[in-house]
Automatic annotation (TrEMBL):
Belongs to the beta-class carbonic anhydrase family. Pfam families: Pro_CA (PF00484). It catalyses: hydrogencarbonate + H(+) = CO2 + H2O. Its EC number is 4.2.1.1. Keywords: Lyase, Zinc. This is carbonic anhydrase. Catalyzes the reversible hydration of carbon dioxide to form bicarbonate. PANTHER family: CARBONIC ANHYDRASE (PTHR11002), CARBONIC ANHYDRASE 2 (PTHR11002:SF79). The lineage of its organism: Bacteria, Bacillati, Actinomycetota, Actinomycetes, Pseudonocardiales. It comes from Saccharopolyspora oryzae.
Length: 210
């Protein structure tokens, strides 16, 4: 996109339209030619920050049919949040002026599965994998309180909790959402058919929601 959408709702519509093209196999592969690449050299103006799971099947520009300069992508296993993630998202919103932040999880998530197993069996994985599991575990416990124990149920809870956590920890992001300049939307990606489903959102007008 040569111009950033004017509102969070417009940015969200562009993203959803791209996912529909991906699902329907009518891809446009926008903004991927040499001339456009050269035009971006002086600077970037992405229309969305996408904070997603590192899973190799969630290639952001592919599943949303976007190109160079469109998405500011931050990815960690299980979309777990830390200072580097928050700083990157704040850079996208506060410096680059993106009007939309997407939290993207997916069904059958390995990080959620590992955290669930740790809670059930009381044994944690070794090394830094343990840190990832520990950051997902509160979502497993929160889901359990609600009687939700299956992996995909926990995934939804984790997406919603991550969305809320971003706004709780980042005063910059919370202010942008409160003043209507940005929205945060949690989406769950379905691996088999490539669709995305909204789990929750903050800052979108009602008419912009599914």
């Amino acid at each position: 996109m040569s111009e950033a959408p004017l509102s969070p709702a417009q940015a969200y519509e562009v993203l959803k339209a791209g996912n529909r093209r991906f699902v329907e196999n009518t891809l446009q592969h926008p903004n991927q030619d040499a001339d456009y690449r050269a035009s971006l050299a002086p600077g970037q103006r992405p229309f969305a920050v996408l904070f997603g799971c590192s899973d190799s099947r969630l290639a952001a520009e592919i599943i949303f049919d976007q190109g160079l300069g469109d998405l500011f992508v931050v990815r960690t296993a299980g979309q777990v949040t830390g200072p580097e993630v928050l700083g990157s998202i704040e850079f996208g919103v506060g410096v680059l002026g993106t009007p939309l932040v997407i939290v993207l999880g997916h069904d059958s998530c390995g990080a959620v599965t590992a955290a669930r197993q740790t809670v059930l069996e009381g044994s944690a994985p070794p090394g830094f994998l343990r840190d990832i599991v520990e950051r997902v575990t509160p979502s497993v416990l929160a889901a359990r309180v609600e009687g939700q124990t299956e992996v995909d149920e926990i995934v939804d809870v984790h997406i919603q909790r991550t969305t809320d956590l971003l706004l709780e920890r980042s005063t910059l992001l919370a202010k942008e959402v409160e003043e209507g300049r940005c929205a945060v939307v949690g989406l769950c990606y379905r691996l088999t058919d490539g669709t995305v489903r909204e789990v929750g959102s903050r800052g979108l007008p009602e008419h912009a929601k599914p």
